[in-house]
Structures are given as structure tokens and as C-alpha cells.
Amino acid sequence: MHIHIWTDMFVPGLPILDKVLRAVTVYLFLVVALKLAGRRELAQLNAFDLVVLLTISNTVQNAIIGNDSSVTGGLIGASALLVADYLAVRIYFEYSRRRRRTRNIGVTLIENGNIRPDALRKVLITEDELEAAAARQGIASLTEIKRATLNPDGSFAFVREKEQGEAGEYREILRRIDHLAEQISRTRPHEASPER
User: Fold this and answer.
1) Helix 71-102 vs helix 2-10: angle between axes, to the nearest 10 degrees?
2) Minimal CA–CA distance to 75: which of 28, 117, 23, 33?
3) Domains of the chain by range and CATH?
4) CA angle, 141 then 126 then 177, to 5°
5) What is this structure's pTM?
6) Which residues, 6 or more positions from 25, have their beta carbon under 8 angstroms from its beta carbon?
7) For residue 163, is pLDDT > 70?
């Protein structure tokens, strides 16, 4: 009886090579599928994207482990995924580094202060999502942006409109101080005021 429990727990129900090939195949499929879905998934997840990713992970679970519920089988599958991910990241890093030497192409979302609706549609990003990304970098409004680019790695690059003279520089400094103060107040728990 006890031997049967230990066998079910630690002896894989499928050959090790089968489990490794399953995990690597599913991993490669998901990487390619998400890459083909575009930069949007890399840039920002909304509620719909999160539901899809959670559903996908549940859907492909059996494809990775098969009919094997042993601990050893799960560890083999997880190890295969980690190794595949490590190799893919290394290969992508080398590829990206070489590509950056030749070109660095992003999608321009705002050009000369004008929002480009065609570019937003291309990467499936709404103006609200773009404004939220700008706010995370301390920019209160899209009207302050001269140029916005969605980089190949999914990050945003914003260039602000230049304000002329000392007054503009002063306003910019005040804006940054206000933004930092707001961030600090969000991260620091409110201290109870001392009783008088």
C-alpha cells in the first residue's frame, strides 16, 4: 500500500523524453503565438489579455504533463520549461543586440504632438492606455508629448514638448517635484498624526 503511494508520487507515468518534448513544444508554440499577436501583449495587459493568458495556461497544462500526475513528472516538465526559457532568452538577447546595431525600429504613436490613430490601431492600444503609460512616467497629459514611440521590447519612450525660457524650465521642475511627492505619498503608509 505504502509502496503504491510512493510509486504514484515519484515514478513518472510517461517517459522522461516524452515529458521534455511536450513541455518544449508547448513553450515554443506559446512564444510564437504571443509574438505574432504583436507588441501590445508586451506593453500592457488589460483585463481581457489577463483572462486569455490565464485560460491558455490552464488549457495547455494537460498538453505538458499528459496523463502523469506524479511529482517527478511535474518537476521534469517545469525543468524543461525553465531550460527552454533560458535558451530562448539568451538567443533573443543575442538577436536583439545584433539587430540594434543595424536598426532600432519602434512604432511612432505621437509625432510632432499629433496622435496617430492608425499607429494606435496597428498595435491595439487606446488613447486611454497610452495616457496611462505616460502618467507612469510623470506626464500628466498627452498634449505635453512631442513624440511617443512603442519600442520593440514593449516599452514606451516619450519626448516632451520643449517649453521656452526659464519659466518653462521652472514649471518642468515643479511638475517633476509634484510627481515625485505623489509617488512617495502612495508608497509610504500614512503616519498617524500625534495627539495634542
Assistant:
1) 10
2) 23
3) 2-102 (no CATH), 107-187 (3.30.240.20)
4) 25
5) 0.43
6) 63
7) no
